[in-house]
Amino acid sequence: MTQNEQQSVSENFDADVAIIGGGAAGLAAAVALGRSLRKVIVIDDGHPRNAPAAGAHNVLGNEGISPLELLAKGRSEAESYGVQIQRGRVEQVQGTTDNFTLAISDSTESIRARRIILATGLVDELPDIPGVREGWGETVLHCPFCHGWEVRDQKIAVLTSGELAVHQALLFSQLSEDVTVYLNDAPEPVPEVLEQLASLNVPLVRGRVEKLVMEGKQVQAVQIENTSGSDAVLFDADAVVVAPRFNARTELFEILGGEVEETPFGTQIPVNPQGMTSVPGVWAVGNAAQAMAMVVSSAASGVMTGAAVHGDLAMADLNETVLAQRRA
Fold first, then answer.
1. What is the pTM of this model?
2. Is-contact 172 241, C-beta < 8 A?
3. DSSP per residue over 79-121, as a string?
4. Distance from C-alpha of 42 to C-alpha of 19, rounded to nearest angstrom
5. How far is the C-alpha of 77 from the C-alpha of 274, rounded, in Å?
6. 157, β-bridge pairs
7. What SS3 class is residue 60?
8. b vs e for 8-31, b when ≥16 Cβ sit within 10 Å of the residue's Cβ?
9. Where along the sequence do coiled-coil regions lie (predicted)?
């Protein structure tokens, strides 16, 4: 199909591709598609998951960049290739391949698109402990690769249990010699886990964690309930490691008939290596499809899926042209 023929097909739609979500994955997909002269609309509600963090790490060439600055640069790059960025929230989506309609919050107009990329991210389901949310993304963290360097050589409290506690303690012990695991009323670890913690020189504190003592976003101590009736016990800490449940935003995927995948760490949208879902014409990238994806890997998935979606559209257009020529 020639470029003019491609444009005539696109003119019947507001977008070749509607990308729902303007994080690293969504914007990277938009850039890849925009560079292939695709009409792209990115719909984003302006609430990035990593906004509380001071910096995004392991971002080659932009180490420690503010997450909001990174996204601003990404939007500018996407717009330079003709991508349209629209602020809003997609409340409803219907249709199928080559005929999707998206309803946007606070708008009487809808968007028609040939393909959809879900870059909707995930929600961190945090432990219900006072202080956790206040320090989240600063001194309350979960990933040693994202924030471990910033808490190196500090007093680190690990609020997880079982095998995951050993995993977290192992990784954070590389960063500090002062790591403690708090059982938080979880079942007593099996002997093998106790042996592993002892081998790491990581003490285990039993009892329920009542709260984190905070000064602004800075952890000061972990407060443990004292069952003897006296005052609660405080353990000094500079940083706290938790194990959230990572739940992808799957509402739109489910509206379109998709089935969510349950993992040990939360829910996600199942995809093939190119980001294609089980719903025809619908793709998913970034944390929506992979809970553990960091910024760079999320962006990489966006590039790969953007290229794949462009190829899918190109093949569909070619097949339509061949059929039209046969009918002529």
1. 0.91
2. yes
3. HHTT-EEEES-EEEEEEETTEEEEEETT-S-EEEEEEEEE---
4. 5
5. 23
6. 180, 240
7. coil
8. ebbeebbbbbbbbbbbbbbbbbbb
9. none
Q: Name which CATH class applies to 127-241.
A: alpha beta
pLDDT at 8: 47
CA distance 127 to 130: 9
Classify 17 as helix, strand or coil.
Answer: strand
Q: What is the pLDDT of residue 1?
A: 44
Determine how many CB atoms are found less than 10 A away from the CB of residue 93: 22
Query: What are the strands of the beta sheet with 239-241, ordered from one edge?
Result: 140-141, 239-241, 156-158, 179-182, 204-205
Residue 105 CA to residue 73 CA, distance in Å, equals: 25
Instruction: Give the Cα-Cα-Cα angle 257, 259, 261 (nearest 5 degrees).
Output: 160
Q: What is the DSSP letter of 152?
A: T
Of 2.60.40.10, 3.50.50.60, 3.40.50.2000, 3.30.470.30, which CATH number belongs to 3-124+245-327?
3.50.50.60
Report helix angle 162-173 to 191-199, nearest 10: 10
pLDDT in tens, 64-95: 999 999 999 999 999 999 999 999 999 999 99
Return the pLDDT at 4: 52
Q: Where are the domains of the chain?
A: 3-124+245-327, 127-241
3-state secondary structure of 145: helix
Rounded distance between C-alpha atoms, residue 107 and residue 89, angstroms: 10
Q: How far apart are alpha carbons 141 and 136 in whole angstroms?
A: 6
Give the residue ranges of the chain where pLDDT is below 70: 1-12, 161-162, 229
Residue whose structure tokens are 């070619």: 318
How far is residue 244's CA from residue 28's CA, in Å, rounded to a whole number? 26
Burial (CB < 10 A; 0-12, 13-18, 19+), residue 134, is middle
DSSP state of 220: E
